[in-house]
Design a protein that fits this description.
single chain, mainly alpha, Arc Repressor Mutant, subunit A, three-stranded antiparallel β-sheet, about 45% helix
Length: about 120
């Protein structure tokens, strides 16, 4: 069942976690793949993915495999929702503005011949 969308304010680590979904909205990501891509630990990433899912930014599902034949458990795949993509783009733009480096200030120049004493 799809969760109803709720807005979130991104933290820097949340922005890192949602960025792969924004960069490739059609892709379904699984946890270990996201951990490698974002360099975030499972202890942070999985609760963050659950939070995004709870707020309707992501959906998830398990792959349909035979664990014995594959030699591993089924993966849970995450995909960004349309509402999540729009919100993520808006939040990332605001985030970029909020944390943008200031433009370098013009440094006054000395007049010729007005060097140090």
């Amino acid at each position: 069942m799809a969760q109803q969308f709720q807005d979130l304010e991104l933290t820097p680590k949340m922005a890192d976690a949602i960025m792969p979904f924004v960069e490739d909205p059609a892709k379904e990501w699984y946890g270990a793949e996201l951990m490698r891509h974002t360099r975030q630990s499972s202890g942070y990433l999985y609760p963050t993915l659950a939070k995004f899912q709870k707020h309707g930014w992501l959906t998830s599902g398990r792959e349909n495999i035979d664990p014995r034949a594959a030699g591993r458990p089924p993966r849970r795949y995450y995909k960004i929702t349309d509402a999540g993509l729009a919100a993520a783009r808006t939040q990332l733009a605001l985030f970029s503005q909020r944390y943008a480096l200031p433009a370098p200030a013009a440094r006054p120049r000395l007049a010729p011949g007005a060097g140090a004493l």
